[in-house]
Write a structure and sequence with these properties.
OB fold (Dihydrolipoamide Acetyltransferase, E2P), Diaminopimelate Epimerase, Chain A, domain 1, 3 domains, 19 strands, 40% helix, 18 helices, five-stranded mixed beta sheet, inorganic pyrophosphatase (n-terminal core), five-stranded parallel beta sheet
């Protein structure tokens, strides 16, 4: 069904930060320098680091608080012949963090037992049952991967069984560390660590490198980065600073990987070199995630670590099948949730819905789709008997974890960060919680904060768009949070002919600018908005090179009728162009 509510949209051009005026472009176009300034680049040295990330740009692992103590405890385990349990998470970040630690620990001669939770039966996080499993496997040390920061009961139970705990995590932490555990979490080091926004895989990467160095074991950091980049990109952490290095170098390593598992995963997902963050976020990541969403995450971990090609082929095929099932289940949840929300009448400031028929593994991604469409924080629950397991996704500038934490004493489980949360409550409390959340959200967030602002960074006449410009824009990859794909505004445009529809509601159209120059427009899921591309109009979009024509194409973000009172982009750009030419 078509969602009856469309958020008010406004377009806003981002301002050029003051540091951009002090940057030495050294032959780079001024517009490219301003894009980098908007991404935190402040001097010539950081320009080089931004455009050419290298392994050398990674911080020393020992700069993370707790790393040295964690390494010493791992070293003690090897000295005494202890067995180590690695307790991870079921999503891409948790699985890749687990893979990194398991690979390096085993390479140094440590005995490792891997424990990954079953999302459908256990839910998120380090729990008492994982302690029992570790004890049954004869482990006297547990190292968590992408979880554990708030697992007070599990740590206490482990200590009661004479099992030490090292926590590696990146989620929001309580004010006080858990007594008796060694914790490595950059969120604990507010203002003290050079980079606080590592993903779980990034934290695990640091510990893995530190352990290898302690045992004087030579490891190929590039090999580790190709795995760490998967978790970093898929967990939607800001792709700036150290995360940009992990993602950029890791993507380069992915393109030339010898791992049979990764090669088969890329083949099944039709990912080719060069590998982009979009490939990871929309092709590779969903397949790895599908194992934990629809079954168990163990197959995703095995795919990352196997050296058996036949097994890799089978695992990649299985993940692909699970991903298809995930897509079908997700579509059902989105459609039914939007219908339930629409039936309630006026749109609340926070959207909440639930059903016994929804698959618990997909409510989070379904919530994300609805949040983007309605521009409202959204929380969806899968109800199973007396319990309701949910996931929430937020929008820009609204801290969902902070908002929901007010009622934390009423939840059975709760965790996450600003933009995404996981939650478990009693099914009987859903109505009252929704009412409380809606009342509070309606009073806190006015229409202004819920108006969807589409920011853009460049205004470019059609005639100036060419392959070189697109290549310069793509030099800012990998794109993600903190380093968004640059949006440009183009107009006025007129259609040349009729749009061509293809696939599931997609659109292609050739358009013409005032100077007679042409540009190809591509709209994913834009069939229902084809009328917005009639007459004289302007668009926001992202530039890329078409794989088949090798020509620039503008991927549509939004469109609106051209305002005849507004000067064209060509006219606006002329004074600045004359100044450049005269200068």
């Amino acid at each position: 069904m078509n969602f009856p509510y469309q958020p008010v949209r406004r377009w806003s051009r981002k301002s050029i930060p003051e540091p951009a005026k002090n940057l030495d472009p050294s032959g780079l176009p001024p517009w490219l320098v301003s894009l980098m300034a908007q991404r935190g680049v402040s001097d010539r040295q950081t320009i080089d680091a931004f455009l050419s990330p290298r392994v050398e740009h990674l911080h020393r692992p020992t700069e993370l608080e707790g790393i040295s103590a964690a390494v010493q405890r791992v070293a003690l385990a090897k000295q005494h012949g202890e067995r180590i349990a690695i307790v991870g998470d079921y999503d891409v970040d948790g699985v890749t963090a687990t893979a990194l630690l398991a690979a390096v620990f085993r390479a140094t001669g440590l005995e490792v037992e891997v424990i990954l939770p079953n999302r459908l039966q256990e839910g998120y996080g380090f729990q008492l049952l994982h302690v029992e499993r570790a004890a049954a496997a004869g482990c006297s040390l547990i190292v968590t991967a992408d979880c554990g920061t708030t697992a007070v009961d599990a740590v206490r139970a482990a200590k009661g069984r004479n099992i030490d705990v090292v926590i590696t995590d990146h989620h929001l932490a309580a004010e006080e560390p858990i007594p008796g555990a060694i914790e490595v979490n950059p969120k604990r080091q507010a203002g003290e660590h050079p980079f606080m926004d590592l993903a779980g895989a990034g934290v695990a990467l640091n510990l893995a490198i530190a352990v290898a160095e302690h045992f004087e074991r030579s490891v190929d950091v590039g090999t580790l980065l190709r795995v760490a980049c998967l978790g970093t990109i898929c967990d939607l952490v800001p792709l700036v600073g150290e995360n940009r290095t992990i993602a950029a170098v890791g993507l380069q390593e992915l393109a030339k990987t010898r791992s049979v598992g990764l090669r088969e995963l890329m083949r099944s997902a039709d990912v080719r070199s060069p590998v982009t963050s979009s490939d990871v976020g929309f092709r590779l990541g969903p397949r790895l995630n599908a194992a934990g969403r629809m079954s168990r995450p163990d197959e995703a971990l095995e795919l990352l670590m196997t050296r058996d090609r036949d097994r890799a082929v089978a695992l990649a095929h299985q993940l692909d099948e699970w991903n298809r099932s995930r897509q079908a289940a997700e579509t059902r949840v989105v459609e039914e949730a939007m219908e339930a929300i629409a039936l309630r009448g006026s749109l609340a400031a926070i959207l909440v819905a639930w059903s016994e028929a929804w698959h618990p593994g997909v409510v989070g991604i379904a919530a994300g789709r609805i949040a983007r469409k309605a521009n409202r924080p959204t929380v969806l629950f899968s109800v199973d008997g007396e319990s309701a397991t949910g996931s929430g996704r937020s929008i820009v500038d609204i801290h969902l974890h902070e908002f929901l934490s007010t009622w934390e004493e009423r939840y059975e489980r709760f965790g996450g960060h600003a933009q995404a949360i996981g939650i478990k409550v009693r099914a009987q409390d859903l109505e009252s919680l929704r009412a409380a959340w809606e009342e509070s959200a309606d009073s806190l967030w006015d229409e202004e904060s819920l108006t969807k602002t589409l920011s853009y960074e460049l205004e470019i006449p059609v005639g100036e768009i060419d392959n070189e410009m697109v290549a310069q824009i793509r030099s800012l990859e990998p794109f993600g949070m903190g380093n968004p794909e640059p949006r440009i505004r183009v107009g006025p445009l007129r259609p040349r002919g009729r749009p061509r529809f293809f696939g599931k509601g997609h659109l292609a159209l050739e358009a013409e600018g005032e100077d007679g120059s042409h540009i190809d427009l591509l709209g994913w899921g834009w069939e229902e908005r084809a009328r917005d591309l009639e007459g004289s109009f302007e668009v926001l979009g992202c530039l890329e090179i078409d794989r088949y024509t090798q020509k620039p194409v503008l991927r549509l973000v939004d469109a609106r009728p051209w305002n005849l009172q507004r000067p064209s982009i060509e006219q606006e750009a002329a004074p600045a162009r004359r100044m450049r030419d005269d200068g």
